[in-house]
Amino acid sequence: MVVDKNSGKYDKQFDEEYNHNTLIISYDPKCNYNELMDICAKYKFEILYEMENFSMITVMLDHAYTDEEMDSIIAELENYDIILGAMKDYIQHLN
Q: What is the pLDDT of residue 15?
């Protein structure tokens, strides 16, 4: 949630701004890494960043997803036992 520092009012526009081409995925650090790569291949994800210290990856999607598609793919991914969570890649603006 972003609050305008001058007015103190909630500014909803920033909450909805995210990259429609990428996802951040958190995985079980004890998982079989090949299984994670198989999931990425199934969905045609390209690995952009691997954050091994955090057990997270950032992936590029095969096209720009709509809001509904993003919510759906996140729900699907979170059904896998090795995936602890998936989230949209939000854009942060620093003033």
A: 52
